[in-house]
Design brief:
The protein is an alpha/beta fold. The chain has 2 domains: 66 residues; 204 residues, 3-Layer(aba) Sandwich (Rossmann fold). Strand 1 and strand 2 form a beta hairpin. Helix 1 runs parallel beside helix 4 and helix 6 packs across helix 7. The chain is elongated, with a radius of gyration of 21 Å. It binds S-adenosylmethionine. S-adenosylmethionine binds next to helix 7, strand 4 and helix 10.
Length: 287
């Protein structure tokens, strides 16, 4: 069969399995097998290029696993996030496009700050920290992750990127004591799902680590609450916290931030207008 016929058949198979992004996934999986860029694959399809038996078998295997709802990024082994390519797979949270809002808001909060210090609490694959290190060559960037497996991915991503990130293994709640009061911006996409809101998507429910999903407590906000408290300890006076949350948690999270003494607390909507990122400022020093 030709490349084009393979993509069409793959798309039909994934559509039948209820995958909304069937065509894109079918293309990306074949591009992965052929070690081509997606644009290169599209050009080869137009020219009617054939597929070897070995590549066809490898493609069929990946399509079968994707139809069984293994995340696309686990099959290709990579995810693109805010300008950086990340190694991902079982044991680490796959970074989501909506989390790029945290990067944009962090860069906005930093403005022209020269040689800023930023910390990513709950870094997973290192996505946010690496995106900020990429965008801010003069910055001091720190990141912490509790899961040994996820930390291993983050370390590999830092090494592969050639960027400098001070990556630590441990609890966000106790991290970076040596940077206390020095940080300009703390970013965090912590676990925040409540225990009774098990995700519907199989890719998330069965493949993202539980430690990455569930935030603890009845409302899922135990870890976010503790991470915010740690951020207050790390930030310089006037420094900014940016934290992702579920769309239904906006009021509760901003309320608890005000209760912790944060100032200028507000919530940023995503592109669908749903509140997803809380922003808060550490009180400026008196006098
Ligand atoms: C929702 S994932 C986000 C990962 C990454 N920031 C991203 O956006 O792709 C949350 C991450 O927090 C980690 N985590 C959970 N509890 C933690 C804690 N107390 N301290 C540090 N990391 C924690 C999880 O292992 C997971 O990697």
């Amino acid at each position: 069969m030709s490349l084009d016929a393979e993509v069409r058949a793959g798309t039909a198979l994934l559509q039948g399995a209820g995958i909304r992004s069937a065509q894109v996934d079918a293309e990306l999986l074949l591009a992965h097998v052929l070690r081509m860029e997606p644009g290169e694959l599209r050009r080869a399809r137009v020219l009617g290029a054939p597929v070897s038996d070995g590549d066809r078998r490898a493609y069929q295997d990946l399509l079968g696993r994707r139809a069984a709802r293994v995340p696309l990024q686990h099959l290709t082994g990579s995810a693109h996030f805010a300008g950086v390519d990340l190694l991902v797979g079982p044991g680490v949270f796959v970074p989501r496009p909506e989390t790029e809002a945290l990067v944009a808001l962090a860069l906005q909060a930093l403005g022209e700050t020269s040689a800023p210090t930023v910390v990513d609490l709950c870094t997973g694959s290192g996505a946010i920290a690496l995106a900020l290190a990429h965008a801010l060559p003069g910055a001091r960037v720190g990141a912490v992750e509790l899961s040994v497996e996820a930390h291993r991915y983050a370390a590999a991503n830092v090494a592969a990127s050639g960027l400098t990130v001070d990556l630590r293994l441990g609890r966000a709640q106790e991290a970076f004591g040596d940077w206390a009061g020095q940080v300009d911006v703390v970013v965090s996409n912590p676990p925040y799902i409540p225990p009774d809101a098990v995700p519907v998507d199989v890719e998330v429910r069965d493949h993202d680590p539980e430690l990455a999903l569930y935030g603890g407590g009845a409302d899922g906000l135990l870890v976010p609450r503790e991470v915010a408290a740690r951020a207050a300890h790390l930030l310089r006076p006037g420094g900014v916290l940016l934290m992702e949350h579920a769309d239904v948690q906006g009021e509760e999270l901003t309320g608890l931030l005000r209760g912790q003494g944060w100032e200028q607390v507000r919530d940023h909507p995503d592109l669908n207008g749903r509140p997803r990122v809380a922003r808060a400022q550490r009180a400026a020093a008196a006098g």
